[in-house]
Amino acid sequence: FITTGEENLLAILKRRWWKYMILGIIDIEANYLVVKAYQYTTLTSVQLLDCFVIPVVILLSWFFLLVRYKAVHFIGIVVCILGMGCMAGADVLVGRQQGAGENKLIGDLLVLGGATLYGISNVCEEYIVRNLSRVEFLGMIGLFGSFFSGIQLAIMEHKELLKVPWDWQIGLLYVGFSACMFGLYSFMPVVIKKTSATAVNLSLLTADLYSLFCGLFLFHYKVCG
């Protein structure tokens, strides 16, 4: 409100409110689908399948940001998609042995849907931080994201929220998760502006490796061979 001219909050809302509203909803649903997937499938499956965001970002960057890649990048996309198909198939086979095949498949599909929306959000983020403003992106995503996520929480998850056995440990976990997401959303626009949405998502594959180790050693998951 203090800033004058085209950078004023009201001026930004007047010109682009509906675009940020759509982007905010896309980002919310991307997070919601991925988090929801944890109810149906395992940590390792979620973290490995969410790499589907990479081919989505590459293709959208090609068509909308006019970024050009070499043939080796598209070979990487094909390998990525084949790997995700194998991972989803392994989840279904293992799940059937454990009597939860359909649930695991639902979880995998939720991850793929969330990764697709993440890809759309990341490409839009790259365009905004390069051509408009990082502060504008964070402000508008925070504004519309808070509004619509609150509505969705009240409609779809209020019963589940009431069932939570609140104590200091659960509260600390929520605070820790919120702090991690705050850091991710704060620093990602900076890195995207200096590199690209594709480079950022490739870098985030490191998180998949850590999650795999956590799944194997903390939750004692077994990878299907």
Automatic annotation (TrEMBL):
Protein name per its UniProtKB record: Solute carrier family 35 member F1
Similarity comment text for this entry: Belongs to the SLC35F solute transporter family.
GO molecular function: transmembrane transporter activity
Subcellular location as annotated: Membrane
Keyword Flavoprotein: no
Xref: InterPro entries: EmrE-like, SLC35_F1/F2/F6, SLC35F_Transporter
Membrane topology type: Multi-pass membrane protein
Transmembrane spans: 47-65, 71-94, 137-156, 168-187, 199-221
Biological role stated in the UniProt entry: Putative solute transporter.
Organism expressing this protein natively: Chlamydotis macqueenii (Macqueen's bustard)
Coiled coil: none
Keywords per UniProt: Membrane, Transmembrane, Transmembrane helix, Transport
